């Protein structure tokens, strides 16, 4: 059976792990600092903080923007609940924006037609490792003084204008270090901030709002002079998770290269069949596909056929306005692009653990499916 996504290979020296436990520094510590430094280098930004999940990263970024009740956040419904739930946890409401039916990502044309009353932020999801139309989105958002937050979880390693997704234009870029992502810490999230003030706020919010530098006095006691003037929570990343992720950062280039090569192989196979094609990515991008997103009019029969034959494929995410927890979310009627994309999208495995046998099998199965279904 070929899985849609898989846990990356993690090799580590058990005695190094044992040392962390022996040191007593399991919550915070040197590995967290090293991890932030390594990602800082990778994404060419000093303003980076690790937290305990992708959802915490979204929540804290919105809190740093002082987003709360009465505010509105625009986003695409084609995303993970890990991204949308934290938006309503701030007390803000979501306004769903339509997507481009060929990419599944925010449609700038639809964005331009939206009512922007009380809109404070725009959340962009880079679908399956493809890249959204960032320059147009940011141009629009800047002209309306709306903050932009990218969830680049599925696109770690993807290139936009020859650089990895970082805070070049957007205010925040978020990555997950969850179990089956390009790099796993088992659980964790990364926040890249454009503004160092946001970084300072998040660094406090992730630990209840306290100022860790001044929290204790010279006796090591809690300093009564160190005020807590914002309400945060416990969103810290820990030393053990950081240790695991650090082992993989060393192999970042070969891991992302493997995702990219697999994507190229899949594109070559897909070209042979006219009932399935890759979904779109913006023109200045080079995706490092977490999964290979395709479009096919045979979504359900093909999904069942491939699954029954040992290849796990998926529609990936359900349009989020289907969930009643979001209420009506200002949605007068279903969005055309979303509905069309949801009916045709099918994601195929693309991860580094796939073998030649997978590509061969997929090709044979697609050929067979085509012969049986096209006429
Ligand atoms: C776009 C996106 N963001 C965030 C997440 C959250 O990932 P996790 O909960 O593994 O950290 C996912 C999960 O697949 C996702 O697809």
Structure in a nutshell:
36% of the residues lie in helices and 14% in strands. The protein has 375 residues and is α/β, with parallel strands linked by helices.
Please specify the SSE layout and strand pairing.
Blueprint: H1 14-23, H2 30-42, E1 48-51, H3 54-64, E2 72-75, H4 81-89, E3 93-96, H5 108-112, E4 119-125, H6 134-143, E5 147-151, E6 159-160, E7 163-164, E8 172-176, E9 189-193, H7 196-205, H8 239-249, H9 252-270, E10 277-278, E11 285-286, E12 291-295, H10 299-308, H11 336-344, E13 345-349, H12 356-373
Parallel strand pairs: 2-3, 2-4, 4-5, 5-8
Antiparallel strand pairs: 1-9, 6-7, 6-11, 8-9, 10-12, 12-13
Helix pairs in contact: 2-8, 3-4, 3-7
The structure holds pyridoxal-5'-phosphate.
Describe the structure.
The chain has 375 residues and is α/β, with parallel strands linked by helices. It is 36% helix and 14% strand. It has twelve helices and 13 strands. The chain has a seven-stranded mixed sheet with strand order 1-9-8-5-4-2-3, with helices on both faces. Strands 7-6-11 form a three-stranded antiparallel sheet, with no helix packed on it. Helix 3 (54-64) packs parallel to helix 4 (81-89) and helix 3 packs across helix 7. Pyridoxal-5'-phosphate (PLP) is lined by residues 53-54, 79-80, 82-83, 125, 151, 153-154, 176, 178-179. Pyridoxal-5'-phosphate is lined by residues 53-54, 79-80, 82-83, 125, 151, 153-154, 176, 178-179.
